[in-house]
Structures are given as C-alpha cells and as structure tokens.
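#struct-help
A.M.: can someone run this one for me? Single chain, 161 residues.
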Amino acid sequence: MKKMKKIFLIMVAMFTIITCYAGNVYQKIPDAVLKSCAQQYPQVVIHNWEVKNDTCIARFEMAKRKMWAYFAPDGSWIKTEVQIPWSKDLPYTVKSSLRQSPFYSWYIDDMKEIERPGKNTYAIQVHEELGPEGAIPGDWVDTYVLYYKPDGSFYKEKHIE
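D.P.: on it. Structure tokens below:
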C-alpha cells in the first residue's frame, strides 16, 4: 500500500511539473500568434510551441505529416515546413533533378517542403560517409542541404559542418 501511495505521489508531481512547464511555454507565445495559427490551421492540435530568436514555432501533424509553422511575434506567418517521409512523395521534377545531380548517390537524411508566402521550395538534407575503410560510421561525414524549386530547378546548397 505504501509503495502504491509513493508511485501515485511521484506521478502527481511529474504531471504538475509537466503542466507548469507547458503553461510557461504558452505564456511566452503572444496572443496575436496563437490567433493567427488558429486561423491558418483551425483543424489541428498543436503538439508544442517553441520560441527561437523571437520566432514562435508550432509543431503539429496534419494529413499524417509532421509540420512546423513559424510566426513573427506580431502574428504574421513566416513559413511552414512539412516533413516528407519518403522520396516517392517528392514531386517528379525535384526527384528528376536530384537524380541528375552529383549528390544522387548520397544518403538522404531529411526532406521537407517549405511553404512561404508566394513561394514553395523543397529542402533535401544529404550526407556522404568520407572516412577510410573501417572508420567509425558518422565520424567522417560531409552533409549538405539542397534546395529545389517546385519545377525541379536547383537553386542553392548549404554545407553543414
């Protein structure tokens, strides 16, 4: 009986801590941002909020895809990133362009569609293992993020160190 009581008290304490933390995060989100997000995505449940450099980021799922919506403190929408789980879900034009690039044989780590006011882009993070044979995997890695327009035209690469 004592053990059950202890477990119950620990669970109540954990719940209280989590609730207080979640409440603090929501307190940092301006009302204009909450309202703008609710108007733009009325059908979703926000999993969590994060604030980075005055940018408010809402994480949620829609149509079985992970999404991150970015808002300025005044509530204006900056962008939304949509996780693309499989390369088959990329537009044909983007896949075709990637196949013709020098990065085609590299490993794909992450793919996102980035929706911005007036334009969409696709970001594909790739890496290549560079180490000598027998090296520890991940120790010698070269990583890039490749950016494509919806028509498949490549317009930027960003080296990640």
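A.M.: thanks! The chain has two domains: 2-77, 87-160.
D.P.: also worth noting: The mean pLDDT is 84.
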